[in-house]
């Protein structure tokens, strides 16, 4: 049994979200090897032919657009300015953030065996509390903290401020991860945090620069994560080819420019970014076409893994609820929802196949796309930062499309190209933050928390997604405030 702290964390401190100050307690809670789903799962692996897992990603950025420029959720801004753009969707979006708290109990009470994984940014969780939407948070607490519904729901950790990892300053990667863990524990309790073992990178954006990737995986493991979700097209085999076994878990290998290696389990999110895949429950119907595959010395059911925006677009707002319910009703009529083709959560699946005899070292290996070309030029025994950097520059000259900006669910949007006016201040603020603050302030002081908040907020991907204009101005304002605070 886990030993958990006896005192709850405060959720809001001096008007700010609790994102720092309890690192020792957080790390003690998350670093354990206790099974999460194995004691409670109602599925036996031998009865299963194939598996699917779906995750819903939810996010609203924090913007300096409230009364007198105060920091508010973009969702609040949508409610307050209903005639701008698609802001009329504020109400439906808010319901989408809450509705799993209705759907899961409803389906369980109907005799179904549903599963869902949830990925909510820290910005969104804070914004819901700022808006006084305790109804949404309480609905989420119902399926997170009530032991009746825990076996059906898995929360995935993420970067607190929805920062895309490849262009996040390396010293801040772990700060985002820890900030989310602090905030989640404060909202849902220590026991709920102890069950969070999978990680969902914002925009499915995986670093392919050796040093960024290494530090990312190292931070994940130090923060107690066992696996992460990766986009199929963002990884390659060690030989530089497309994945052959995309419906099996992989071992993601990270090697830095010093030649050190580290690895973590990866579940492969197949295909592209189309939310329709989740919205129309395509993973279930794809899983129906699959059968058991050999992994090591064991035959295991393959897994179709998908994630999509949980609120965005007509499919998720309007078509998903009925499609979601219909799939679980269908499963009840074909094996009672516990045999044949079934839904599982990611950690549940990994625990079941490992209990059946699979070992992570049996998983096929992968690495971020583009690294095969790099390691062909830099031998492991001769790996030095200078040699790696030289090889990167040579590859860029040979192939104009080669880059170390990372890869995500889409290749037509860059979070780097054309955003120097955001990236330069972002990196400058991070440098200032670490030069002036590291080791000077206790991490639970109000000053440090406010500085950290501004540093993390400036790294929100939205300021580099919507093009130049209002969103880049938001970034400039946050930078100026952060610089002034420093």
From TrEMBL:
<dbReference type="InterPro" id="IPR011330">
    <property type="entry name" value="Glyco_hydro/deAcase_b/a-brl"/>
</dbReference>
<dbReference type="InterPro" id="IPR052046">
    <property type="entry name" value="GH57_Enzymes"/>
</dbReference>
<keyword id="KW-0378">Hydrolase</keyword>
<dbReference type="GO" id="GO:0005975">
    <property type="term" value="P:carbohydrate metabolic process"/>
</dbReference>
<dbReference type="GO" id="GO:0016787">
    <property type="term" value="F:hydrolase activity"/>
</dbReference>
<protein>
    <submittedName>
        <fullName>Glycosyl hydrolase family 57</fullName>
    </submittedName>
</protein>
């Amino acid at each position: 049994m886990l030993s958990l702290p006896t005192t709850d964390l405060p959720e809001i401190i001096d008007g700010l979200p609790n994102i720092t100050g309890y690192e020792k307690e957080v790390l003690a809670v998350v670093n354990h090897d206790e099974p999460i789903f194995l004691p409670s799962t109602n599925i036996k692996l031998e009865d299963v032919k194939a598996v699917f897992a779906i995750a819903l990603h939810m996010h609203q950025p924090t913007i300096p657009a409230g009364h007198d420029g105060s920091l508010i959720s973009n969702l609040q801004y949508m409610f307050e300015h209903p005639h701008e753009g698609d802001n009329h969707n504020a109400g439906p979006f808010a319901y989408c953030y809450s509705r799993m708290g209705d759907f899961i109990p409803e389906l369980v009470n109907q005799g179904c065996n549903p599963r869902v994984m949830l990925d909510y940014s820290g910005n969104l969780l804070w914004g819901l509390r700022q808006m006084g939407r305790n109804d949404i948070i309480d609905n989420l607490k119902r399926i997170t903290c009530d032991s009746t519904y825990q076996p059906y729901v898995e929360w995935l950790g993420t970067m607190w401020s929805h920062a895309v990892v490849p262009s996040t300053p390396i010293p801040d990667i772990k700060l985002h991860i820890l900030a989310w863990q602090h905030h989640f524990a404060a909202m849902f309790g220590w026991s709920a945090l102890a069950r969070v073992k999978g990680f969902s990178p914002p925009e499915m954006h995986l670093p392919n620069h050796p040093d960024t990737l290494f530090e990312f995986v190292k931070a994940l493991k130090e923060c107690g994560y066992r696996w992460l979700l990766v986009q199929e097209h963002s990884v390659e085999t060690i030989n530089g080819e497309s994945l052959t076994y995309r419906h099996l878990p992989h071992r993601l290998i990270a090697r830095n420019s010093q030649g050190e290696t580290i690895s973590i389990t990866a579940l492969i999110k197949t295909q592209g970014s189309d939310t329709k895949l989740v919205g129309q429950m395509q993973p279930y119907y794809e899983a129906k076409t699959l059968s058991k595959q050999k992994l090591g010395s064991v035959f295991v059911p393959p897994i179709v893994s998908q994630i999509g925006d949980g609120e965005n677009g007509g499919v998720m707002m309007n078509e998903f609820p009925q499609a979601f319910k219909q799939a679980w009703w269908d499963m009840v009529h074909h094996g009672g929802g516990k045999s044949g083709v079934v839904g599982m959560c990611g950690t549940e699946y990994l625990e079941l196949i490992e209990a059946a005899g699979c070992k992570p070292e049996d998983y096929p290996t992968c690495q971020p796309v583009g690294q095969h070309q790099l390691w062909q030029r830099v031998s492991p025994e001769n790996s030095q930062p200078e040699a790696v950097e030289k090889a990167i520059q040579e590859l860029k000259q040979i192939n104009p499309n080669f880059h170390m900006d990372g890869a995500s669910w889409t290749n037509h949007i860059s979070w780097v190209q054309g955003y120097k006016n955001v990236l330069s201040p972002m990196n400058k603020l991070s440098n200032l933050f670490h030069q002036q603050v590291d080791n000077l302030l206790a991490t639970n002081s109000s000053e440090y928390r406010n500085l950290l908040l501004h540093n993390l907020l400036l790294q929100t991907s939205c300021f580099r997604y919507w093009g130049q204009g209002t969103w880049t101005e938001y970034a400039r304002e946050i930078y100026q405030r952060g610089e002034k605070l420093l």
